Amino acid sequence: RSRAAQVWHGRGRNDCGVSATAMKVKVRRAGGHGGQVPCMGERQAASVTSSTAGRLPARRQGGGVRTNVAMPTRPPTTHVASRSKVELIKERSDYLRHPLLEDLVDGKPNVSNDSVQLIKFHGSYMQDDREARGFGRGKAYQFMLRTRQPGGFVTNKLYLTMDDLATDFGSGTLRLTTRQTYQLHGVLKDDLKSVFSTIIKSMGSTLGACGDVNRNVLAPPHPYKNRVDYQHAQVLANNIADLLAPQSGAYYDVWLDGEKFMTAEKEDPKVTEDRNFNGFGTNFEGSPEPIYGAQFLPRKFKIAITVPGDNSIDVLTNDVAIVVMTGDDGEVCGYNILAGGGMGRTHNNQSTFPTLTEPLGYIEKDDIYHVIKAIVATQRDYGRRDDRRQSRLKYLVHSWGVDKFRHVVEQYFGKKMMPFKPLPKWEHKNYFGWGEQGDGKLFYGVFVMNGRLKGEGKKMLRHVIEKYELSVMLTAEQNLILCEIDPAWKEEIQQQLESVGYVDYSKADLLDVKSMACPALPLCGLAVTEAERGLPAVNKRVRALLTKVGLSQQESFVIRMTGCPNGCARPYMAELGFVGDGPNSYQIWLGGSPSHSRLAEPFMDKMKLDKLEETLEPLLYFFKSRRSSEDESFGDFCARIGFDALRVYQKAYVAPPSISQLPRVGVEMDAFEQLKAVAEAQNKTLSQVTTEAINAYAAFALTDGKEGKK
Fold first, then answer.
1. pLDDT mean across residues, the chain
2. Which residues of 75-111 are buried (b: 16+ CB within 10 A; e: fewer)?
3. Which of 95, 260, 282, 646 is the right S-S partner for 248, CB 3.0 to 4.6 Å?
4. Do the Cβ atoms of 205 and 199 come closer than 8 Å?
């Protein structure tokens, strides 16, 4: 399986196939190939001998030896491949150092445009508080920091540290994200170094929380101590985060002046060994970034890990989904691998879309890091770098098809993947309320509206966590789980939390419990309308509509809202999704499933908030009157009935109060049954079908049947 060619790069001009100024190829013989290179990948297979290899352009520039998996078959060219501006910024940054190091000490409240891109890799976004701008003073710059919390696990020390930093350096609030991390808003540029270094020295990290690298790795926020599969998912999330973390040391150069802080937790030796393995072309030998190279990835990359059936983390929406498989003995034996999911899209650009992962295959336990590297390398080498709207892995899978994608991944992997193993149906688990960990202690899942910890609630959570020395798990739905609770503390903890509004989820409105929103205005530069601040009021209006059409207080479904189409709160998985498309205006997406295993679809554009009731009331009344059973959810109903029927019903809908004011006409029972059958067959209201029938008959009768005779 050894590759037959290695390429040495000198001063490569770029990382996209442009010929280097000092490049030479060393060809070694491989048994069975007669000294020729087996070339596989996006371009057609070809053989390269020692006489032709030297004419091939470099595939990638990573600062060292590169083993090629898919050499191009095109003739040599001096044509410079088109690349986005971000690609050029990454290339000349010295692995994310410059000009960020210089910008941090220039005395300005902001960083340069180049550093805006680079600081993302370190875990921060520069933001502008649009509502804090003063006349003549320009933008109100501040920074948001995002932590890296694989699987959502937070130590007691780190929780208290983040709480302190939010109070001392941030806006006074902490945001729990949809990827099991913290976001700390409102940090000024002069305080960045203090905040970063404090997080690092508290055994936390922000490295790779943003940017064109692997982001935070999701796993079920399990509190179970007696489940091998759940515990393994948590460990694997941490190890994959280590495997794909940037390695150049720039993070420590910038925030700790080059001193790498040593924690008590050491990287798993197998992670180190498998990262360094380069038998099949995944690595840049001798590069400060062995996997990413100087260009890193074309776009962000997201991985999620779960166990069969548990879809508490929207596992299918990630670039890569890993399902931990166990044998008859209950021990982990391997993994199902899926790829190609993603939520982001752009309004009015039909070439961008949300989509879910597709099965790739099954691998044995020992191969997990190798297959992850193979998928990352495929995206690194073939993902588009000219158009960031088309740079996610999902577009590569869509362009190639899953079979071709699997074939190329297998070249980097070094062997075939095994057939995908059957899985049970996905179920959504929320981990709310009290439960047993399996070791005699309890956990308590706390509902946090839109993930915002603030005010007295934030203070009380800190008090409880500090007093009882609890660890915490962050969920992928912006909530948290208190762990390691002695049963004797249960009543006191419950009372303390309820005293500040953190009531048990069973006492909260289930619409709120099942909803999510992104932060949006005023800080997110991409937001065009409200989300976090707007969703609570929208939920109240939806609840009022449910009551109006005769549905109970226990009726609920998944509602999600974002201030732009990028999908941070995963609105395209909602049963009812609001996607901002202008000031106080939203696209409406319908048809997601309660199990979070089916995409929603766009139902209408530009619904103004003041039109919410007239838009949703007909749909909810239709749902109430035509659902197949009490167990059918709103999303399942919309998917079953279809959007054409929903739109017809919506257009013909007459509100119940209006119906009561209309003249009443009696009909014979057999006529009524016929009208009812037609209404159901055509998915129309009974009043609409009756009106059409009477109008048709009247038109016929008033012409003495002449029109009919014609």
1. 88
2. eeeeeeeebbebbebbbebebbbbbbeebbeeeeebb
3. 95
4. yes
